[in-house]
């Protein structure tokens, strides 16, 4: 079997993720679900997520709703307690240089926009949806491959604005000095967070229970490090109902 929790991996969180996975794996075993001893370090992408041996992974809302929802089972959505969002939801932060005096998003119509990848709900799709409300789409843009790299590009003046998953931004504030050079300009609308998934052949309800019990048993210092509060039983329809106006724009 395969497993990964790739979305919020950082070296500083390796110990916390290891303890979290050990608890999940132990709970899965009690339900008769086999799982690897260690999480995969290559656990990203459609090929991995659609593997029939997938016990657990975390994907992004955009690929889930566009190409995965009928190929995997939705386990549930972890809740990171993002301010201004219902449980299990999240949003993105538009970050700019701390001394940038432009007052609002409309003022960045022609600015260079850094984003992690076009298939990212938090880094690209939500950003374009917010820009559309102001009568434009970001056209002058650079693809960086990662939220943190987008933030560094703004700080280094290689770009003017970036859109970061709020959980990623929170972790950057906790661990990356570059966050001190940036400020939040505005936020996107809340959308369902990054879902946990498993193979269609796996008992997703049992996996949900294993994760829920693992979070409850996780020592407080690790809960705080991962900023995880619980897991919510969001449904496929919660993702599929998202307005696609700005998708891939």
What does this structure look like?
This protein has about 250 residues and is of the alpha/beta class. It folds into two domains: about 1-80 and about 190-240, D-Maltodextrin-Binding Protein, domain 2, CATH 3.40.190; about 90-190, 3-Layer(aba) Sandwich (D-Maltodextrin-Binding Protein, domain 2), CATH 3.40.190.10. About 35% of the residues lie in helices and about 20% in strands. The protein is built from nine helices and twelve strands. The strands form three sheets. It has a five-stranded mixed beta sheet with strand order 1-2-11-3-12, with helices on one face. Strands 7-6-8-5-9 form a five-stranded mixed beta sheet. Strands 4-10 form a two-stranded antiparallel sheet. Helix 1 crosses helix 7 (about 205-215) and helix 1 (about 15-30) crosses helix 8 (about 220-225). The longest helix has 17 residues, at about 15-30. The radius of gyration is 18 Å and the shape is globular. The N and C termini lie far apart (about 35 Å). The relative contact order is 0.23. The model has no long low-confidence stretch (mean pLDDT about 95).
């Amino acid at each position: 079997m395969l497993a990964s929790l790739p979305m919020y991996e950082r070296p500083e969180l390796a110990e916390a993720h290891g303890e979290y996975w050990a608890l999940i794996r132990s709970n899965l075993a009690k339900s008769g679900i086999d799982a690897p001893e260690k999480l995969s370090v290559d656990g990203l992408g459609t090929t991995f997520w659609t593997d029939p041996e997938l016990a657990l992974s975390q994907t992004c809302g955009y690929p889930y709703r566009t190409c995965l929802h009928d190929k995997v089972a939705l386990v549930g959505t972890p809740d990171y307690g993002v301010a201004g969002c219902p449980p299990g939801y999240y949003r993105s932060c538009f970050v700019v240089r701390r001394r940038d005096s432009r007052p609002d998003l409309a003022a960045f119509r022609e600015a260079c926009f850094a984003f992690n990848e076009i298939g990212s709900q938090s880094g690209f799709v939500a950003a374009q949806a917010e820009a559309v409300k102001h009568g434009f789409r970001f056209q002058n843009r650079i693809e960086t491959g990662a939220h943190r790299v987008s933030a560094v590009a703004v700080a280094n003046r290689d770009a003017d604005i970036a859109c970061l998953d709020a959980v990623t931004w929170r972790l950057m504030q906790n661990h990356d000095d570059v966050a001190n050079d940036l400020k939040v300009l505005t936020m996107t609308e809340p959308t369902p967070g990054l879902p946990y998934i498993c193979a269609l052949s796996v008992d997703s309800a049992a996996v949900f229970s294993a994760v829920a019990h693992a979070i409850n048993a996780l020592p407080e210092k690790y809960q705080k490090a991962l900023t995880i509060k619980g897991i919510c039983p969001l449904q496929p329809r919660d993702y599929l109902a998202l307005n696609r106006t700005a998708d891939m724009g």
